[in-house]
């Protein structure tokens, strides 16, 4: 059925026009289901509630009483347990006796801004703590959509409900009364029509679904079902809205109440109009702020994903750098140990050859004697010194080559520190040359540490940018938590909507007051116009005084907020009955 026809049916249902024609139109497009008995309807609704809904979204089952909701919810939960979609092994039992486990759909029944939950919000349970608390995410998200930090593509989503809140203010949400689904929009809605179903309940139950809205009746045949539908819209329609109910009540009371002075009624009516306008202005500001916060939360979620990726990369590079450093240190320790052993071996060999070399040097320095009788001994000593120097020149390249100079060096005392340093350096170079992999492992360790340092700097910069961005969005200079702010503004919107409803209810009561009913038909319009003129004049006066007041205050620059992200709904989605 096209959207325009749905809209026409919606208006007809709201006004109560020709329920027979509405029933026939709904039946023609498959939105009326007739069951042979209550058991068959219960089985059918259980199957529908546990099956995948159109578009993959949530399913609403609307009933007349909480007892019906409890009975249907228990049947749905049993089927989910049997299919393995709900864990009944570890559960929390509420004060009302309901068992809740991982996989269950629940509703929070009390506003709590510290927890980020509101009355009648629905959640999917992801985990049950042995101490009685529940980890939950909004319905419509899968547990895999949430990171360990509780972040989704739409912002921070995970909540932890403490045990005392769960026991007192949580219930299963597989089925709900009409009051529980007012204001909700789901993928598909199923209305259970019974002997107590009224026009308002039928209207609400048949306008929650985006893609499907179906009424379920127990009837002998189509004619019986049609008569039940007509009876539904013949029942009291006062709950179609607070303003409508107030008008009916005021008209009823007008027959008996003593008329009040017209001036008093008009004064109160003007005050009620002013209260209504104030609520509308406040609601407009709050709704704009809520949209901005939703956009900020979406951007914040994207930043959170980037931060999570950087943190993961930092952990990986830290592990890689540590492992590379350990490998380089291990080969370094091996080279050092081998070099120390080679140095000690060379020094021991030097010590063993040092005395013969010193004695040969003394023979050379003594010379052949005045008569030249020791020429042979001198030549043999010189040869011995040259051989000794050739063996040690690779370690001590400063050893001279001329015999007498060599003899002078060999006969002198050793410079022990210099000798040890030279031998140790040579031993280390030779050992290092024998292990070419050490240079490669050291280079790999340096590269791994440099990569870790780069990722760490990028993570620090990302954190600072995120803190600066969120701080600039607040007047007090403290970082903004979009999820907490959004929950608070959502509560403020709910409060403002309640105040607006109360103001409109009061306007309806005053409009139906006998003093107003007795006035000419155009008197109400005249008073409304007079009130608007007075309001506009008052606003103009305040605007005129505003520059003078602001000029006395120091000015400060204000950074414009970041642009909101605009999302375009996917085309082609079939809508249910409009509201």
Structure, explained:
Helix 3 packs across helix 4 and helix 10 (262-366) packs antiparallel against helix 14. The chain is elongated. It has 579 residues and is α/β, with parallel strands linked by helices. Among the domains are: 3-240, no CATH class; 331-435, no CATH class. The chain has 17 helices and 14 strands. It has helices spanning 3-15, 19-28, 38-50, 66-82, 163-169, 178-181, 199-205, 222-232, 242-254, 262-366, 375-392, 403-411, 416-433, 437-472, 482-511, 514-517, 523-551, and strands spanning 32-35, 59-63, 91-93, 99-101, 105-108, 122-128, 134-138, 151-152, 155-156, 159-161, 170-172, 176-177, 186-192, 209-218. Strand 13 (186-192), helix 7 and strand 14 (209-218) form a beta-alpha-beta unit. A 5-stranded parallel β-sheet has the order 1-14-13-2-12, sandwiched between helices. It has a 5-stranded antiparallel β-sheet with strand order 10-7-6-5-11.
Summarize the structure.
This protein is α/β, with parallel strands linked by helices and 579 residues long.
Features:
579 residues; five-stranded parallel β-sheet; alpha/beta; disordered C terminus; elongated
């Amino acid at each position: 059925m096209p959207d325009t026809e749905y809209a026409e049916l919606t208006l007809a249902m709201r006004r109560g026009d020709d329920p027979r024609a509405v029933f026939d139109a709904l039946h023609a497009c498959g939105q009326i289901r007739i069951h042979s008995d209550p058991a068959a309807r219960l089985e059918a609704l259980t199957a529908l509630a546990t099956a995948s809904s159109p578009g993959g979204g949530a399913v609403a089952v609307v009933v007349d009483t909480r007892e019906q909701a409890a009975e249907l919810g228990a049947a749905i939960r049993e089927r989910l347990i049997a299919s393995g979609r709900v864990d009944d092994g570890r559960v929390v039992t509420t004060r009302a006796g309901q068992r809740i486990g991982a996989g269950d759909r629940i509703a929070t029944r009390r506003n709590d801004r510290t927890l980020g939950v509101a009355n009648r919000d629905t959640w999917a349970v992801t985990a049950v703590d042995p101490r009685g608390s529940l980890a939950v995410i909004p319905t419509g998200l899968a547990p895999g959509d949430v990171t360990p930090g509780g972040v989704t593509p739409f912002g921070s989503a995970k909540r932890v409900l403490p045990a005392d809140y769960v026991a007192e203010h949580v219930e299963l949400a597989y089925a709900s009364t009409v009051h529980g689904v007012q204001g909700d929009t789901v993928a598909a809605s199923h209305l259970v029509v019974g002997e107590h179903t009224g026009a308002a309940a039928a209207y609400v139950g048949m306008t929650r679904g985006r893609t499907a809205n179906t009424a379920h009746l127990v009837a002998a045949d189509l004619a019986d079902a049609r008569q039940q539908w007509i009876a539904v819209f013949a029942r009291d329609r006062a709950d179609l809205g607070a303003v409508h109910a107030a008008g009916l009540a005021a008209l009823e009371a007008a027959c008996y109440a003593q008329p009040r002075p017209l001036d008093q009624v008009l004064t109160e009516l003007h005050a009620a109009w002013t209260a209504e306008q104030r609520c509308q202005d406040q609601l407009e500001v709050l709704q704009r702020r809520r949209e901005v916060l939703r956009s900020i939360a979406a951007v914040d979620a994207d930043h959170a994903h980037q931060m999570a990726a950087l943190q993961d990369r930092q952990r990986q590079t830290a592990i890689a750098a540590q492992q590379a450093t350990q490998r380089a240190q291990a080969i370094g320790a091996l080279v050092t140990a081998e070099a120390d052993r080679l140095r000690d071996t060379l020094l021991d060999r030097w010590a063993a050859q040092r005395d013969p070399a010193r004695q040969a040097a003394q023979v050379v320095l003594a010379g052949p004697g005045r008569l030249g009788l020791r020429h042979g001994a001198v030549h043999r000593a010189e040869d011995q010194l040259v051989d000794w120097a050739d063996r040690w020149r690779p370690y001590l390249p400063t050893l001279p080559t001329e015999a007498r100079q060599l003899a002078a060096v060999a006969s002198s005392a050793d410079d022990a520190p210099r000798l040890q340093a030279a031998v140790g350096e040579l031993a280390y170079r030779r050992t290092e040359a024998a292990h070419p992999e050490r240079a490669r492992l050291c280079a790999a360790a340096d590269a791994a540490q440099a990569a870790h340092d780069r990722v760490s700097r990028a993570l620090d910069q990302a954190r600072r940018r995120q803190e600066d961005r969120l701080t600039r969005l607040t007047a007090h200079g403290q970082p903004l938590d979009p999820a907490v702010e959004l929950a608070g503004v959502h509560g403020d919107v709910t409060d403002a909507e309640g105040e607006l409803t109360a103001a409109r209810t009061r306007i309806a009561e005053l409009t139906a007051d006998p003093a107003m009913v007795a006035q000419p038909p155009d008197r109400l319009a005249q008073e409304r116009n007079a009130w608007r003129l007075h309001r506009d004049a008052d606003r103009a006066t305040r605007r005129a005084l505003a520059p003078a007041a602001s000029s006395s205050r120091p000015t400060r620059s204000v950074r414009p907020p970041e642009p909101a992200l605009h999302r375009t709904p996917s085309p082609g989605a079939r809508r249910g009955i409009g509201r």
